[in-house]
Write a structure and sequence with these properties.
InterPro entries: P-loop_NTPase (IPR027417), PhoH (IPR003714), PhoH2-like (IPR051451), PIN-like_dom_sf (IPR029060), PIN_dom (IPR002716). It contains 14 helices and 14 strands. It is of the alpha/beta class. Helix 2 packs across helix 3, helix 7 packs parallel to helix 8 and helix 12 packs across helix 13.
């Protein structure tokens, strides 16, 4: 069995575990991951969190080396540079090394360290739907003078979050495939944005030119409430669609309560509470909307063969769908219909961890002009809710 040291770069990008090896993590690498989780940009933060979850899920394959290595293999190399500590650890312990960093590979070859090629990038999410920049005054002026130029190589419907050097958001734009455009803001007080990423989500949710909307992200980040409020506005206030269909795959965390009597509606009623809690009138409003034919509830099992017209579908807890179910729901769309997939891939139930349809959809559909994607981050539910974020 080889003992292979893994560097930060490879952990951020992802790799497949080979059960024949033991993977070594240095304390220096762990500190870099922690730093990126807090101080990185949006995509880097996500990748660092993903790497930490990956290590936790494969903890039996990893071994932690907590020694604080002092660089002695060459007096000209900086002792505070993590790559040099990696080289020193390999020399001291006979570790092999796996990395995608070309300079680190070259340095490892210089000192005769065994290099192991990674077994390929894991199929995991790295696209968050936006890019954050902190341009200089001249770069900012150039951007606004050339709004039809894709200066930052954005995908279609990817957002550009413009910040100053202190992290304050100056502006938000979306590349629509032809030019950078301003975001659509909430036209009603019933749809409230709590942060700049929710602004991006609202822009997607209100845009009829983007019929496939994926709002992903952490618990408490506002996925469901924004989906429900914008759907109600689109149907009841604007008349963009005639109906709302709530879709949920009826599985969940915790212990089952056993056999439930009644028909489909009675058996699945509890799974639709996250939708209904965001109706101003709660259960009573849901009842009246259903009686008028404006609101319906469905589960994927019963959707095969349906053709859904003039409807906005809200598929909540979409992390609990495999690729087949995502495809099943999406292919129901007929004329003048749209679908919202809302989910937190961090809360995926076990049976969908290795075949996660939401993550696959984001990876495969990004950049399609009919698709809008944004991954929300901040928990806006409450300060108390944030306390439990550390329980990973």
């Amino acid at each position: 069995m080889k003992r292979i040291l893994v560097d930060t770069n490879l952990l951020l990008e992802g790799f497949e575990i080979n059960n024949e090896h033991k993977y070594i993590l240095l304390s220096h690498v762990n500190r870099e991951l922690d730093k990126h989780k807090v101080h990185g940009d949006g995509e880097l933060k996500f990748k660092a969190r993903r790497a930490v979850r990956f290590i936790e899920e494969h903890q039996d394959n990893f071994e932690f080396d907590v020694k604080d290595y002092k660089v002695s293999f060459d007096e000209d190399f900086d002792n505070n540079y993590t790559d040099n500590k990696i080289i020193q650890a390999c020399i001291d312990n006979g570790y092999s090394l796996t990395t995608n960093d070309l300079l680190l590979k070259q340095k490892a070859r210089m000192y005769g360290i065994d290099l192991v090629e990674s077994d390929g990038k894991v199929s995991d999410l790295s696209y968050v739907g936006y890019r954050e920049i902190a341009p200089s005054d001249s770069e900012l002026a150039l951007l606004y003078e050339n709004l039809k130029k894709n200066t930052y190589n954005l995908l279609t419907n990817q957002f550009l979050i413009i910040k100053n050097n202190h992290g304050f958001v100056l502006d938000k734009l979306r590349w629509n495939g032809e030019e950078h455009v301003k975001l659509k803001h909430s036209p009603t007080k019933k749809i409230k944005s709590m942060n700049h990423l929710q602004d991006c989500a609202i822009d997607i949710l209100l845009n009829k030119e983007i019929p496939i909307k994926i709002i992903a992200g952490n618990y408490g980040s506002g996925k469901t409430i924004l989906s429900v409020k914008t759907a109600l506005y689109n149907v009841l206030d604007k008349g963009n669609y005639a109906k709302i269909m709530m879709v949920r795959n009826p599985i969940g965390s915790g212990k089952e309560i056993g056999y439930l009597s009644g028909g489909k509606n009675e058996k699945t009623e509890g799974f639709f509470k996250p939708f209904i809690q965001h109706l101003d009138g709660g259960d009573q409003e849901a009842y009246f909307l259903e009686q008028r034919g404006v609101l319906s509830r469905e589960i994927p099992f019963y959707m095969k063969g349906l053709s859904i017209e003039d409807t906005i579908i809200i598929c909540d807890e979409a992390e609990d769908l495999d690729v087949k179910l995502i495809r099943l729901i999406g292919t129901r769309l007929s004329s003048n219909s749209a679908v919202i997939f809302a989910g937190d891939y961090n809360q995926t139930e076990n049976e969908y961890k290795n075949n996660n349809g939401l993550m696959r959809a984001i990876d495969k559909l990004k950049g399609n002009p009919l698709v809008g994607i944004v991954v929300l981050e901040e928990d806006v539910r409450s300060n108390a809710s944030k306390v439990f974020a550390c329980l990973e």
